[in-house]
């Protein structure tokens, strides 16, 4: 059950609240920075723990995911495949000890769990020449790989992740995208999806622009020549994000949504979709390591998008699934699968 934070909870904005002497602009910045760190558990490195631990029970690819892993890696023996996946997981854990790394979330295919949106994107890939797709917070890129495998043109796909250094006290030089190549046994040549490293909150990487109301004046930049998401505003036909929004507090979830909305093409049928943690009632939920996580409900998530796009200009779909007591032994955790499509 979601709830207000108890009094003994660590305030999410503690740092910003203590910095009230700062000028307003830097206080606002501090709030944004603090919110970005409000991640329930994902950004918290367990003290001196640099190994994923004995959590092999979390390696549970479903038959479809197992078949996809076998096809991509060309490793047919399931024990050999497991050894391979575990070896990459160990390296990834040193880059950033996300729960999704610890729990092998990187072998779970999420993009297909939104079947209407997914089929619509495949259709865009088949029928709309130059339709561009972006996966934000792609990690190893399993969702991009599935989409490419199902026929979306690889040259029109773009991957983005903050990669190195987000929480990387060991300064390991590997990053998730390169580890994705290792996991799926691909190379930049065999899987030539353009990858951009950057923080979506960083204005140097992506400035906030209002949702486009008409086609952009200039053609879309060449994806291979990009150093940031800047210049793509109004050009993207499909944007996907899985397990990204829930890393942030309410202010930054809105900020992220507005930034993604600014990237979306004005063309009817353009779509933003994905999934992340949610609760039946908006509020904070206790994470697995004592930190609180902000969760929207289906209703407040819908209201948020309605406030971003002009009234009546988008169709919003949501579907919430109880995925069990993932974060702590007493609280049910829910995944919200959602899409926002231009009408
Ligand atoms: C929980 S993982 C989910 C990964 C993948 N989408 C999936 O579902 O398996 C969140 C991903 O978002 C990335 N990320 C976190 N903060 C980010 C930011 N500010 N900008 C871009 N990527 C970010 C992380 O590095 C990580 O790969």
From TrEMBL:
Keyword DNA damage recorded: no
GO molecular function: transferase activity
Pathway participation: Secondary metabolite biosynthesis
Gene3D superfamilies linked to this entry: Vaccinia Virus protein VP39
Family in the record: Belongs to the class I-like SAM-binding methyltransferase superfamily.
PANTHER family: METHYLTRANSFERASE AUSD
Listed name of the protein: Methyltransferase domain-containing protein
Organism: Mycena sanguinolenta
């Amino acid at each position: 059950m979601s709830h207000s934070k108890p009094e003994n909870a660590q305030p999410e904005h503690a740092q910003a609240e203590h910095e009230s002497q700062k000028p307003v602009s830097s206080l606002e910045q501090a709030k944004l920075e603090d919110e970005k760190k409000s991640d329930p558990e994902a950004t918290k490195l367990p003290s001196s723990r640099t190994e994923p631990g004995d959590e092999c029970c979390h390696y549970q690819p479903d038959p479809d995911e197992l078949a996809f892993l076998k096809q991509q890696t060309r490793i047919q023996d399931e024990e050999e495949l497991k050894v391979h996946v575990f070896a990459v997981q160990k390296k990834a854990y040193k880059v950033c000890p996300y729960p999704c790394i610890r729990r092998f979330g990187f072998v779970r295919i999420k993009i297909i769990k939104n079947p209407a949106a997914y089929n619509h994107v495949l259709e865009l890939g088949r029928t709309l020449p130059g339709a561009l797709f972006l996966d934000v917070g792609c990690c190893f890129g399993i969702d991009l790989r599935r989409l490419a495998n199902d026929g979306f043109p690889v040259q029109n796909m773009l991957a983005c992740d903050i990669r190195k250094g987000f929480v990387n006290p060991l300064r390991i030089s590997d990053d998730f995208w390169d580890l994705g190549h290792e996991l799926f046994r691909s190379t930049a040549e065999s899987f030539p999806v353009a990858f951009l490293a950057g923080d979506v909150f960083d204005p140097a990487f992506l400035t906030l622009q209002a949702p486009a109301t008409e086609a952009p004046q200039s053609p879309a930049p060449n994806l291979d020549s990009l150093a940031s998401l800047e210049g793509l505003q109004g050009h993207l036909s499909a944007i996907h994000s899985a397990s990204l929004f829930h890393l942030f507090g309410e202010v930054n979830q809105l900020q992220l949504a507005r930034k993604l909305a600014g990237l979306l093409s004005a063309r009817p049928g353009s779509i933003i979709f994905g999934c992340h943690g949610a609760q039946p009632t908006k509020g904070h939920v206790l994470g697995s390591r004592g930190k609180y996580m902000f969760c929207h409900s289906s209703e407040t998530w819908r209201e948020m998008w309605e406030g971003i796009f002009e009234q009546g200009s988008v169709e919003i779909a949501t579907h919430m699934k109880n995925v069990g007591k993932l974060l702590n032994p007493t609280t049910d955790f829910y995944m919200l699968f959602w899409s926002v499509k231009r009408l």
